[in-house]
Amino acid sequence: HNFDVNVMALLRLAQLTTPAMVEAGEGALIVTGNTSALRGKAKFAGFAQAMCPAVLQASRLAHSMAGGVRNVPKPGEESAVKQALTAADMAAQEVILHALLDLYPDVALAAEEDTPSVARFPLSSGALVVIDPIDGTLHSYREERGPYAVIVGLAIDRQLVSSIVALPREG
C-alpha cells in the first residue's frame, strides 16, 4: 500500500512541476529514498545528489550533439545495438567520470565505453558504479526515434543502492 501511495504522489508531483520545466527548457525532478542510508555506507548516502550536476551536464552535452554524430562501431560486439558508439557517448561518459574521480575515486566501474579516465579507477571495490552514458545510442539517439537516457547507478556489496536517470530529449 505504501509503495502505491508513494508512486501516485510522485506521479502527481511530476504532473504539477514538469510543465514549467518544459516551458523553461530546463529542469530536473530528482527522486531519492532512504535505501542507500539503510544498505549503503555513510560515504555514499548522498550519491545521487552529489552526482546529479555531472549527470545533468552529460545530459545537456548529449542533447546538444544529438543527430549530428557518426556511429563508429565497437569491434568484438555481436549486435549493432552493442556496437553503437559515438563521440557523444565518449564525451558524456568522461563528464561523469571526472565527477566520480573528484567525489568517489575509490569506486570500481562497469562503464559502457572504454574512455581514457576508466583506467584511473580500481578494478575492484565494495562499491561499483555502473554507467551508460547514452542508453539507446543506435536508434533513439542517433536516429532521433525516441527517448534515450543517461544512466548512473551505484551498487554496494552487490546491492543497488542509488541510481540517476536523465532523459535529455524530454528536458
Secondary-structure element series? HHHHHEEHEE
Task: Provide a count of the helices.
Answer: 6
Question: What does the average pLDDT come to?
Answer: 80
Distance between the termini: 31 Å
Q: What is the rounded Rg?
A: 17 Å
Largest sheet: 4 strands, mixed
Helix percent reads 40-55%
The low-pLDDT segments are: 36-40
Strand content: 15-25%
Number of strands: 4
* Large-scale geometry: globular
In the sheet with the most strands, the strands line up as 1-2-3-4
Please sum up the structure shown:
This protein has 171 residues and is of the alpha+beta class. The chain is built from six helices and four strands. A four-stranded mixed β-sheet has the order 1-2-3-4.
Describe it.
With 171 residues, the chain is of the alpha+beta class. The protein has helices at residues 2-24, 35-39, 47-65, 80-83, 87-103, 137-142; strands at residues 108-111, 127-135, 149-156, 159-166. Strands 1-2-3-4 form a 4-stranded mixed beta sheet. The protein is globular. It starts with a helix and ends in a 5-residue tail after the last strand.
Helix/strand layout:
Layout: H1 2-24, H2 35-39, H3 47-65, H4 80-83, H5 87-103, E1 108-111, E2 127-135, H6 137-142, E3 149-156, E4 159-166
Parallel strand pairs: 1-2
Antiparallel strand pairs: 2-3, 3-4
Helix pairs in contact: 3-5
